[in-house]
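Notes from the pairing session

We agreed to fold both candidates in a single pass and log them together. This is the raw record for the first candidate, unedited. Please don't reformat it; downstream parsing expects exactly this layout.

Candidate A
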Amino acid sequence: MKNLYLLLFTLFITGLSFGQDVYISEINYTGSKPGIELTGVGETDLSGWSLAFYEGTNRKVYKIIDLTERLDNSILWKDVPDISLGHPKGAGVALIDGDGNVVEFLFNYGSSAFEAKDGPAQGFENVNVGSTSGEESIQRTATGWVVAEPTPGDPSSNRSLGVVKNQIEGFNVYPNPVRDGIISITTKSSLEKYVVIYSILGSVVYQNTVRANETINVSNLNTGLYFVQVEEDDKVSVKKILIN
Protein backbone atom coordinates (compact mmCIF):
# COMPACT_ATOMS: atom_id res chain seq x y z
CA MET A 1 0.00 0.00 0.00
CA LYS A 2 2.86 2.35 0.85
CA ASN A 3 4.37 2.02 -2.62
CA LEU A 4 0.98 2.57 -4.25
CA TYR A 5 0.46 5.83 -2.36
CA LEU A 6 3.95 6.97 -3.28
CA LEU A 7 3.39 6.17 -6.94
CA LEU A 8 0.00 7.91 -7.11
CA PHE A 9 1.25 10.98 -5.31
CA THR A 10 4.39 11.27 -7.44
CA LEU A 11 2.43 10.87 -10.65
CA PHE A 12 -0.09 13.49 -9.56
CA ILE A 13 2.39 16.16 -8.53
CA THR A 14 4.52 15.54 -11.61
CA GLY A 15 1.39 15.86 -13.73
CA LEU A 16 0.61 19.21 -12.19
CA SER A 17 3.75 20.81 -13.50
CA PHE A 18 3.21 19.95 -17.17
CA GLY A 19 6.99 20.12 -17.51
CA GLN A 20 6.91 23.61 -16.01
CA ASP A 21 7.83 25.04 -12.63
CA VAL A 22 4.64 27.12 -12.24
CA TYR A 23 0.94 26.27 -12.31
CA ILE A 24 -2.43 27.75 -11.32
CA SER A 25 -3.34 26.70 -7.78
CA GLU A 26 -6.38 28.85 -6.94
CA ILE A 27 -9.08 30.77 -8.81
CA ASN A 28 -11.39 33.28 -7.13
CA TYR A 29 -13.94 35.04 -9.31
CA THR A 30 -17.05 35.42 -7.16
CA GLY A 31 -15.63 36.67 -3.86
CA SER A 32 -14.51 40.08 -2.65
CA LYS A 33 -10.89 39.48 -3.75
CA PRO A 34 -11.07 38.09 -7.29
CA GLY A 35 -7.84 36.86 -8.80
CA ILE A 36 -5.55 33.98 -9.66
CA GLU A 37 -2.96 32.27 -7.46
CA LEU A 38 0.16 30.82 -9.07
CA THR A 39 2.41 28.33 -7.30
CA GLY A 40 5.89 27.27 -8.30
CA VAL A 41 9.52 26.93 -7.35
CA GLY A 42 11.33 29.50 -5.23
CA GLU A 43 11.30 33.00 -6.69
CA THR A 44 10.72 32.08 -10.33
CA ASP A 45 10.76 35.17 -12.54
CA LEU A 46 7.45 35.41 -14.39
CA SER A 47 8.53 38.21 -16.71
CA GLY A 48 7.15 37.39 -20.15
CA TRP A 49 4.47 35.07 -18.76
CA SER A 50 0.79 35.96 -19.08
CA LEU A 51 -2.76 35.01 -18.15
CA ALA A 52 -5.32 34.92 -20.97
CA PHE A 53 -9.03 35.03 -20.14
CA TYR A 54 -11.62 33.57 -22.52
CA GLU A 55 -15.34 34.13 -22.95
CA GLY A 56 -17.52 31.06 -22.79
CA THR A 57 -19.94 32.18 -25.49
CA ASN A 58 -17.66 32.94 -28.43
CA ARG A 59 -14.65 31.05 -27.02
CA LYS A 60 -12.38 33.98 -27.78
CA VAL A 61 -9.88 35.80 -25.59
CA TYR A 62 -11.20 39.01 -24.02
CA LYS A 63 -8.36 39.95 -21.69
CA ILE A 64 -4.62 39.25 -21.44
CA ILE A 65 -2.62 40.19 -18.35
CA ASP A 66 1.15 40.33 -18.75
CA LEU A 67 3.04 39.16 -15.67
CA THR A 68 6.17 40.99 -14.51
CA GLU A 69 6.50 39.74 -10.94
CA ARG A 70 8.55 37.03 -9.30
CA LEU A 71 7.05 34.34 -7.12
CA ASP A 72 7.28 35.37 -3.47
CA ASN A 73 8.09 32.31 -1.35
CA SER A 74 6.85 30.15 -4.24
CA ILE A 75 3.50 31.97 -4.44
CA LEU A 76 2.03 34.81 -6.48
CA TRP A 77 -1.48 36.11 -5.96
CA LYS A 78 -2.55 38.21 -8.95
CA ASP A 79 -5.46 40.52 -8.25
CA VAL A 80 -7.78 40.72 -11.24
CA PRO A 81 -10.62 42.96 -10.01
CA ASP A 82 -12.57 43.05 -13.27
CA ILE A 83 -12.62 39.36 -14.12
CA SER A 84 -15.90 37.51 -14.18
CA LEU A 85 -15.13 33.88 -14.79
CA GLY A 86 -18.78 32.90 -14.89
CA HIS A 87 -20.99 32.89 -17.97
CA PRO A 88 -20.73 34.56 -20.43
CA LYS A 89 -17.27 36.03 -19.85
CA GLY A 90 -14.19 34.41 -18.47
CA ALA A 91 -15.18 30.77 -18.68
CA GLY A 92 -11.55 29.97 -19.48
CA VAL A 93 -8.16 31.08 -18.19
CA ALA A 94 -4.86 30.05 -19.76
CA LEU A 95 -1.40 30.31 -18.22
CA ILE A 96 1.20 31.12 -20.88
CA ASP A 97 4.95 30.86 -20.25
CA GLY A 98 7.69 33.18 -21.47
CA ASP A 99 8.13 31.22 -24.70
CA GLY A 100 4.44 31.43 -25.57
CA ASN A 101 3.68 27.84 -24.55
CA VAL A 102 0.32 27.01 -22.96
CA VAL A 103 1.16 25.63 -19.51
CA GLU A 104 -2.49 24.91 -18.77
CA PHE A 105 -5.92 26.03 -19.92
CA LEU A 106 -8.70 25.80 -17.33
CA PHE A 107 -12.46 26.11 -17.62
CA ASN A 108 -14.63 26.90 -14.64
CA TYR A 109 -18.23 27.40 -15.55
CA GLY A 110 -20.90 24.92 -16.57
CA SER A 111 -20.27 21.32 -17.55
CA SER A 112 -18.62 21.39 -20.97
CA ALA A 113 -15.07 22.36 -21.85
CA PHE A 114 -14.35 24.16 -25.11
CA GLU A 115 -11.58 24.78 -27.62
CA ALA A 116 -10.11 28.29 -27.78
CA LYS A 117 -10.83 30.03 -31.09
CA ASP A 118 -8.08 32.64 -30.92
CA GLY A 119 -5.37 34.11 -28.72
CA PRO A 120 -2.39 32.31 -27.18
CA ALA A 121 -4.41 29.17 -26.37
CA GLN A 122 -5.96 28.84 -29.83
CA GLY A 123 -6.61 25.20 -30.67
CA PHE A 124 -6.30 24.05 -27.05
CA GLU A 125 -9.24 22.49 -25.21
CA ASN A 126 -9.56 23.51 -21.60
CA VAL A 127 -10.10 21.40 -18.48
CA ASN A 128 -13.23 21.88 -16.38
CA VAL A 129 -12.40 22.64 -12.73
CA GLY A 130 -15.92 23.47 -11.48
CA SER A 131 -17.63 26.67 -10.35
CA THR A 132 -18.24 28.68 -7.19
CA SER A 133 -20.61 31.21 -5.69
CA GLY A 134 -20.27 33.80 -2.95
CA GLU A 135 -17.10 33.99 -0.86
CA GLU A 136 -15.52 30.82 -2.21
CA SER A 137 -12.65 29.92 -4.50
CA ILE A 138 -11.59 26.91 -6.55
CA GLN A 139 -8.40 25.31 -5.22
CA ARG A 140 -6.19 22.57 -6.61
CA THR A 141 -5.72 19.44 -4.49
CA ALA A 142 -4.33 15.99 -5.19
CA THR A 143 -7.84 14.61 -5.45
CA GLY A 144 -8.92 17.27 -7.93
CA TRP A 145 -10.24 20.81 -7.71
CA VAL A 146 -12.33 21.71 -4.67
CA VAL A 147 -14.45 24.66 -3.57
CA ALA A 148 -13.22 26.12 -0.28
CA GLU A 149 -12.70 29.29 1.71
CA PRO A 150 -10.29 31.55 -0.23
CA THR A 151 -6.63 31.54 0.79
CA PRO A 152 -5.18 34.13 -1.62
CA GLY A 153 -1.40 34.07 -1.63
CA ASP A 154 -1.17 32.01 1.57
CA PRO A 155 1.54 29.35 1.16
CA SER A 156 1.00 27.89 4.62
CA SER A 157 -2.75 27.36 4.33
CA ASN A 158 -4.12 24.03 5.46
CA ARG A 159 -5.16 22.87 2.02
CA SER A 160 -4.26 19.20 1.94
CA LEU A 161 -2.61 18.01 -1.27
CA GLY A 162 -2.57 14.35 -0.36
CA VAL A 163 -3.88 11.33 -2.21
CA VAL A 164 -6.42 10.93 0.59
CA LYS A 165 -7.34 14.04 2.52
CA ASN A 166 -6.88 14.14 6.32
CA GLN A 167 -7.04 10.42 7.06
CA ILE A 168 -4.83 10.70 10.15
CA GLU A 169 -6.53 12.21 13.18
CA GLY A 170 -4.74 15.18 14.70
CA PHE A 171 -2.18 15.36 11.88
CA ASN A 172 -0.04 18.50 11.85
CA VAL A 173 3.37 19.62 10.63
CA TYR A 174 5.03 22.57 12.37
CA PRO A 175 6.44 25.15 12.32
CA ASN A 176 4.98 26.19 8.99
CA PRO A 177 6.60 28.17 7.42
CA VAL A 178 9.86 26.44 8.39
CA ARG A 179 12.62 28.88 9.37
CA ASP A 180 15.21 26.96 11.37
CA GLY A 181 15.48 23.77 9.31
CA ILE A 182 13.60 21.53 11.76
CA ILE A 183 10.03 20.24 11.54
CA SER A 184 7.90 18.17 13.90
CA ILE A 185 5.00 15.91 12.97
CA THR A 186 2.22 15.27 15.44
CA THR A 187 -0.84 13.03 15.43
CA LYS A 188 -3.11 11.69 18.15
CA SER A 189 -1.26 8.37 17.96
CA SER A 190 2.14 7.42 19.39
CA LEU A 191 2.80 4.97 16.54
CA GLU A 192 5.81 5.20 14.24
CA LYS A 193 5.23 7.15 11.04
CA TYR A 194 6.61 6.68 7.55
CA VAL A 195 7.41 10.15 6.22
CA VAL A 196 8.09 11.17 2.62
CA ILE A 197 8.77 14.77 1.59
CA TYR A 198 8.25 15.75 -2.05
CA SER A 199 9.44 18.79 -3.94
CA ILE A 200 6.93 20.86 -5.89
CA LEU A 201 7.84 18.79 -8.98
CA GLY A 202 7.25 15.44 -7.31
CA SER A 203 10.84 14.43 -6.54
CA VAL A 204 11.39 12.58 -3.26
CA VAL A 205 13.77 14.67 -1.14
CA TYR A 206 13.35 12.81 2.16
CA GLN A 207 11.94 9.47 3.31
CA ASN A 208 12.29 7.71 6.63
CA THR A 209 10.41 6.05 9.46
CA VAL A 210 10.26 8.32 12.50
CA ARG A 211 9.13 7.83 16.07
CA ALA A 212 6.47 9.89 17.79
CA ASN A 213 7.83 13.31 18.84
CA GLU A 214 10.97 12.84 16.70
CA THR A 215 12.00 15.96 14.77
CA ILE A 216 13.11 15.96 11.12
CA ASN A 217 16.05 17.99 9.84
CA VAL A 218 15.24 19.69 6.52
CA SER A 219 18.04 22.25 6.62
CA ASN A 220 19.56 20.73 3.47
CA LEU A 221 16.48 21.59 1.39
CA ASN A 222 16.24 24.74 -0.70
CA THR A 223 13.64 27.37 0.09
CA GLY A 224 10.25 26.76 -1.48
CA LEU A 225 7.11 24.65 -1.24
CA TYR A 226 7.17 20.97 -0.29
CA PHE A 227 4.61 18.26 0.45
CA VAL A 228 4.95 16.16 3.60
CA GLN A 229 3.23 12.79 3.25
CA VAL A 230 2.78 10.66 6.37
CA GLU A 231 1.61 7.05 6.56
CA GLU A 232 0.52 5.76 9.95
CA ASP A 233 -1.35 2.51 10.62
CA ASP A 234 -2.40 2.22 6.92
CA LYS A 235 -3.72 5.78 6.90
CA VAL A 236 -2.24 8.62 4.87
CA SER A 237 -2.26 12.42 5.12
CA VAL A 238 -0.33 15.12 3.29
CA LYS A 239 0.32 18.74 4.15
CA LYS A 240 1.93 21.54 2.17
CA ILE A 241 4.79 23.34 3.92
CA LEU A 242 6.94 26.33 3.06
CA ILE A 243 10.67 26.30 3.81
CA ASN A 244 12.15 29.78 4.16
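Candidate B (folded immediately after A)
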Amino acid sequence: MITSKQNKKLKELNKIIDQKCSDNSLYALEGFTIFEEAIRENVEIVDVYVSESAENEFRSRYNQLYTTVKDDILRSLSKTKTGKDIIFVVKKPSKINIKEINDELVLLLDFLQDPGNLGTIIRTADAFGIKNILTVNNCVNVYNEKVLRSTMGSIFRVNVTSIELDDLRSLIERGYKLISTSPNGEKIAKFKFKTILALGNEANGISEEVFRESFKRVKIPMKGKTESLNVAIAAGISIYIMTEE
Protein backbone atom coordinates (compact mmCIF):
# COMPACT_ATOMS: atom_id res chain seq x y z
CA MET A 1 0.00 0.00 0.00
CA ILE A 2 1.21 3.50 -0.84
CA THR A 3 1.39 5.64 2.30
CA SER A 4 3.40 8.67 1.15
CA LYS A 5 2.83 11.51 -1.32
CA GLN A 6 6.50 11.21 -2.19
CA ASN A 7 5.94 7.80 -3.74
CA LYS A 8 7.38 7.74 -7.27
CA LYS A 9 4.25 6.22 -8.83
CA LEU A 10 2.01 8.83 -7.23
CA LYS A 11 4.23 11.66 -8.44
CA GLU A 12 3.94 10.27 -11.95
CA LEU A 13 0.17 9.89 -11.54
CA ASN A 14 -0.09 13.54 -10.52
CA LYS A 15 1.76 14.57 -13.69
CA ILE A 16 -0.63 12.49 -15.79
CA ILE A 17 -3.64 14.10 -14.09
CA ASP A 18 -2.22 17.56 -14.87
CA GLN A 19 -1.17 16.47 -18.39
CA LYS A 20 2.46 17.30 -17.62
CA CYS A 21 3.76 13.77 -18.02
CA SER A 22 6.58 13.00 -20.46
CA ASP A 23 4.42 10.16 -21.82
CA ASN A 24 1.76 12.11 -23.70
CA SER A 25 -0.24 8.98 -24.56
CA LEU A 26 -1.92 8.69 -21.14
CA TYR A 27 -4.64 10.47 -19.19
CA ALA A 28 -6.36 9.95 -15.84
CA LEU A 29 -9.97 9.70 -14.72
CA GLU A 30 -11.73 9.48 -11.35
CA GLY A 31 -14.67 7.62 -9.89
CA PHE A 32 -16.31 4.19 -9.98
CA THR A 33 -19.06 5.23 -12.40
CA ILE A 34 -16.67 6.28 -15.15
CA PHE A 35 -14.42 3.30 -14.36
CA GLU A 36 -17.30 0.96 -15.13
CA GLU A 37 -17.96 2.92 -18.31
CA ALA A 38 -14.33 2.43 -19.34
CA ILE A 39 -14.62 -1.32 -18.81
CA ARG A 40 -17.83 -1.51 -20.86
CA GLU A 41 -16.20 0.40 -23.71
CA ASN A 42 -13.07 -1.82 -23.62
CA VAL A 43 -10.81 1.16 -22.99
CA GLU A 44 -7.17 0.24 -22.42
CA ILE A 45 -6.67 0.73 -18.67
CA VAL A 46 -3.00 1.06 -17.72
CA ASP A 47 -3.06 1.63 -13.94
CA VAL A 48 -5.68 1.69 -11.18
CA TYR A 49 -5.29 3.34 -7.77
CA VAL A 50 -7.88 2.51 -5.10
CA SER A 51 -8.29 4.02 -1.63
CA GLU A 52 -7.74 1.73 1.34
CA SER A 53 -11.37 2.09 2.46
CA ALA A 54 -12.70 1.11 -0.99
CA GLU A 55 -10.35 -1.83 -1.55
CA ASN A 56 -12.77 -4.57 -0.46
CA GLU A 57 -15.55 -3.18 -2.63
CA PHE A 58 -13.19 -2.97 -5.61
CA ARG A 59 -11.95 -6.53 -5.18
CA SER A 60 -15.50 -7.88 -4.96
CA ARG A 61 -16.63 -6.09 -8.14
CA TYR A 62 -13.68 -6.16 -10.52
CA ASN A 63 -11.05 -8.59 -11.73
CA GLN A 64 -8.44 -5.90 -12.27
CA LEU A 65 -4.92 -5.29 -10.99
CA TYR A 66 -4.71 -2.24 -8.74
CA THR A 67 -2.57 -0.38 -6.22
CA THR A 68 -3.95 0.51 -2.80
CA VAL A 69 -3.35 4.05 -1.55
CA LYS A 70 -3.99 5.51 1.88
CA ASP A 71 -7.34 7.32 1.81
CA ASP A 72 -6.22 10.88 2.50
CA ILE A 73 -3.31 10.63 0.08
CA LEU A 74 -5.39 9.39 -2.86
CA ARG A 75 -8.12 11.94 -2.21
CA SER A 76 -5.53 14.72 -2.10
CA LEU A 77 -4.78 13.94 -5.76
CA SER A 78 -8.45 14.19 -6.71
CA LYS A 79 -9.63 17.34 -8.46
CA THR A 80 -13.12 17.11 -6.93
CA LYS A 81 -14.05 18.76 -3.64
CA THR A 82 -14.92 15.53 -1.86
CA GLY A 83 -12.20 13.38 -3.42
CA LYS A 84 -12.64 10.01 -5.09
CA ASP A 85 -11.87 6.45 -4.02
CA ILE A 86 -10.49 5.44 -7.41
CA ILE A 87 -8.21 7.13 -9.93
CA PHE A 88 -7.22 5.23 -13.05
CA VAL A 89 -4.96 5.81 -16.03
CA VAL A 90 -5.94 4.96 -19.59
CA LYS A 91 -4.36 5.09 -23.03
CA LYS A 92 -5.40 7.89 -25.34
CA PRO A 93 -6.97 6.62 -28.56
CA SER A 94 -4.97 6.80 -31.77
CA LYS A 95 -5.48 10.02 -33.70
CA ILE A 96 -8.00 9.47 -36.46
CA ASN A 97 -7.16 9.98 -40.11
CA ILE A 98 -9.11 13.01 -41.33
CA LYS A 99 -9.42 11.36 -44.74
CA GLU A 100 -11.45 8.53 -43.18
CA ILE A 101 -14.19 10.80 -41.78
CA ASN A 102 -17.40 10.14 -43.68
CA ASP A 103 -20.17 11.08 -41.20
CA GLU A 104 -23.25 13.06 -42.19
CA LEU A 105 -22.62 15.59 -39.39
CA VAL A 106 -19.29 16.59 -37.86
CA LEU A 107 -18.72 19.33 -35.27
CA LEU A 108 -15.97 21.94 -35.52
CA LEU A 109 -15.07 23.91 -32.39
CA ASP A 110 -13.16 27.13 -32.97
CA PHE A 111 -11.01 28.38 -30.04
CA LEU A 112 -13.33 27.06 -27.31
CA GLN A 113 -11.74 27.83 -23.94
CA ASP A 114 -14.10 26.67 -21.20
CA PRO A 115 -13.51 23.03 -20.13
CA GLY A 116 -17.10 22.59 -18.97
CA ASN A 117 -18.43 23.72 -22.34
CA LEU A 118 -16.21 21.31 -24.25
CA GLY A 119 -17.12 18.41 -21.97
CA THR A 120 -20.84 19.15 -22.27
CA ILE A 121 -20.62 19.38 -26.07
CA ILE A 122 -18.84 16.01 -26.20
CA ARG A 123 -21.57 14.47 -24.04
CA THR A 124 -24.30 16.05 -26.19
CA ALA A 125 -22.64 14.84 -29.39
CA ASP A 126 -22.56 11.33 -27.96
CA ALA A 127 -26.27 11.51 -27.11
CA PHE A 128 -27.09 12.30 -30.75
CA GLY A 129 -24.74 9.74 -32.26
CA ILE A 130 -22.09 12.18 -33.49
CA LYS A 131 -18.76 10.38 -33.63
CA ASN A 132 -16.32 13.13 -34.59
CA ILE A 133 -15.56 16.55 -33.15
CA LEU A 134 -12.78 18.62 -34.69
CA THR A 135 -11.05 21.47 -32.86
CA VAL A 136 -9.14 24.35 -34.40
CA ASN A 137 -7.25 27.43 -33.17
CA ASN A 138 -6.01 26.11 -29.83
CA CYS A 139 -9.16 24.93 -28.09
CA VAL A 140 -8.91 23.86 -24.46
CA ASN A 141 -7.15 20.50 -24.04
CA VAL A 142 -9.69 17.69 -24.33
CA TYR A 143 -7.77 15.81 -21.61
CA ASN A 144 -8.16 18.63 -19.10
CA GLU A 145 -9.65 16.97 -16.00
CA LYS A 146 -12.68 19.30 -16.00
CA VAL A 147 -13.41 18.40 -19.62
CA LEU A 148 -13.14 14.69 -18.85
CA ARG A 149 -15.40 14.97 -15.81
CA SER A 150 -18.03 16.88 -17.80
CA THR A 151 -18.18 14.21 -20.52
CA MET A 152 -19.47 11.59 -18.02
CA GLY A 153 -17.81 8.82 -20.04
CA SER A 154 -18.74 10.10 -23.50
CA ILE A 155 -15.04 10.73 -24.13
CA PHE A 156 -14.77 6.98 -24.80
CA ARG A 157 -17.24 7.14 -27.71
CA VAL A 158 -16.52 10.46 -29.42
CA ASN A 159 -13.31 11.23 -31.31
CA VAL A 160 -12.00 14.71 -30.56
CA THR A 161 -9.25 15.68 -32.99
CA SER A 162 -7.21 18.87 -33.23
CA ILE A 163 -6.79 19.95 -36.86
CA GLU A 164 -5.30 22.73 -38.96
CA LEU A 165 -7.22 24.89 -41.42
CA ASP A 166 -5.74 22.89 -44.30
CA ASP A 167 -7.40 19.77 -42.86
CA LEU A 168 -10.72 21.62 -42.82
CA ARG A 169 -10.21 22.65 -46.43
CA SER A 170 -9.49 19.05 -47.41
CA LEU A 171 -12.83 17.96 -45.94
CA ILE A 172 -14.59 20.73 -47.85
CA GLU A 173 -12.85 19.61 -51.04
CA ARG A 174 -14.22 16.10 -50.40
CA GLY A 175 -17.78 17.43 -50.42
CA TYR A 176 -18.46 18.63 -46.88
CA LYS A 177 -20.11 22.02 -46.47
CA LEU A 178 -19.13 24.19 -43.52
CA ILE A 179 -22.10 25.72 -41.70
CA SER A 180 -21.06 28.36 -39.17
CA THR A 181 -23.16 29.69 -36.32
CA SER A 182 -23.51 33.48 -36.35
CA PRO A 183 -25.98 36.05 -34.95
CA ASN A 184 -26.24 37.37 -38.52
CA GLY A 185 -27.03 34.02 -40.12
CA GLU A 186 -30.22 32.57 -41.53
CA LYS A 187 -32.50 30.28 -39.53
CA ILE A 188 -30.82 26.96 -38.78
CA ALA A 189 -32.31 23.88 -40.43
CA LYS A 190 -31.52 20.29 -41.28
CA PHE A 191 -29.45 20.07 -44.44
CA LYS A 192 -29.38 17.34 -47.08
CA PHE A 193 -25.63 17.42 -47.55
CA LYS A 194 -22.67 16.32 -45.44
CA THR A 195 -22.20 19.06 -42.91
CA ILE A 196 -19.51 20.42 -40.64
CA LEU A 197 -21.21 22.56 -37.99
CA ALA A 198 -18.87 25.21 -36.58
CA LEU A 199 -19.29 26.70 -33.10
CA GLY A 200 -17.08 29.52 -31.90
CA ASN A 201 -15.29 30.98 -28.92
CA GLU A 202 -17.40 31.85 -25.87
CA ALA A 203 -16.71 35.59 -26.10
CA ASN A 204 -15.82 36.27 -29.73
CA GLY A 205 -17.60 33.60 -31.73
CA ILE A 206 -16.14 32.10 -34.87
CA SER A 207 -12.87 33.44 -36.25
CA GLU A 208 -12.72 35.22 -39.60
CA GLU A 209 -10.47 32.52 -41.03
CA VAL A 210 -13.12 29.88 -40.35
CA PHE A 211 -15.91 32.16 -41.60
CA ARG A 212 -14.04 32.51 -44.89
CA GLU A 213 -14.36 28.76 -45.46
CA SER A 214 -18.09 28.72 -44.67
CA PHE A 215 -20.79 27.72 -47.14
CA LYS A 216 -23.52 29.25 -45.00
CA ARG A 217 -24.02 31.10 -41.70
CA VAL A 218 -26.91 30.10 -39.45
CA LYS A 219 -28.49 31.19 -36.19
CA ILE A 220 -30.98 29.86 -33.66
CA PRO A 221 -34.05 32.14 -33.72
CA MET A 222 -34.92 33.44 -30.24
CA LYS A 223 -38.13 35.11 -29.06
CA GLY A 224 -36.88 36.60 -25.81
CA LYS A 225 -34.54 39.50 -25.10
CA THR A 226 -31.40 37.43 -24.55
CA GLU A 227 -28.93 38.21 -27.33
CA SER A 228 -26.91 35.01 -27.20
CA LEU A 229 -26.77 31.50 -25.77
CA ASN A 230 -24.03 29.61 -23.97
CA VAL A 231 -22.08 27.75 -26.66
CA ALA A 232 -22.82 24.31 -25.17
CA ILE A 233 -26.56 25.05 -25.10
CA ALA A 234 -26.39 26.42 -28.65
CA ALA A 235 -24.60 23.24 -29.70
CA GLY A 236 -27.33 21.06 -28.19
CA ILE A 237 -30.17 22.96 -29.89
CA SER A 238 -28.33 23.05 -33.22
CA ILE A 239 -27.50 19.35 -33.16
CA TYR A 240 -31.11 18.48 -32.30
CA ILE A 241 -32.43 20.52 -35.23
CA MET A 242 -29.85 19.13 -37.66
CA THR A 243 -30.41 15.49 -36.69
CA GLU A 244 -34.18 15.54 -36.20
CA GLU A 245 -35.95 12.76 -38.10
